[in-house]
Amino acid sequence: MTGVDGSGLRQVTNGESGKAGDWDPSWSPDRESLAFGTLGFGASWDNSPSQAFIRVLDLKTNRVSILPGSEGMWSPHWSPDGSVIAGLSAGLARLMLYDLRTRKQTSLSINTADPRTGAGTANF
User: Fold this and answer.
1) What are phi and psi of 25, to 5 degrees?
2) Domain spans of the chain?
3) What is the dihedral sign for C-alpha 47, 48, 49, 50?
4) Which of 13, 14, 30, 38 has the maximal Cβ count within 10 Å?
5) Could you tell me the pTM of the whole model?
6) Burial grade of 79 (CB within 10 A; 0-12, 13-18, 19 or more)
7) pLDDT digits (tens, 9 = 90+) for 15-32
């Protein structure tokens, strides 16, 4: 992460996913947190995509935590009011909403498309 002018470069995650990496960061609307997708340590997309989950970095404390109930989700994107995070399920099969208050996931769609070719449909 850097300042607007490119100064003050600092690493904000500690490689929580190991070799799989931490990816797809999304700023909270208040700019105080950063959500990102991870896999469980030592997991990979090839052998354990269901171990994906969302972590949130509190930029004031530099504390990284797993969102309870976000198992199987990645690619987080905050709602404008900060109450919900949209994400994809492991395997790209579903568009999910994660409610930060209730800590529960809701499926918005089922994707029957082949993620490699895009052939298929999405049902909402």
Assistant:
1) -70, 150
2) 18-114
3) positive
4) 38
5) 0.73
6) middle
7) 666 666 677 889 999 999
> Which amino acid is present at 56?
V
At 46-73, the pLDDT tens digits run 545 557 888 899 989 988 888 888 888 8
Whether 109 contacts 124, CB under 8 Å: yes
In angstroms, the Cα distances linking 24 to 56, 67, 82, 88 are 12, 15, 17, 11
Computed from CA positions of residues 19, 56, 96, 24, in that sequence, does the dihedral angle turn out positive or negative? negative
Confidence of residue 124 (pLDDT cuts 50, 70, 90): very low
Which token pair is 78? 């905050």
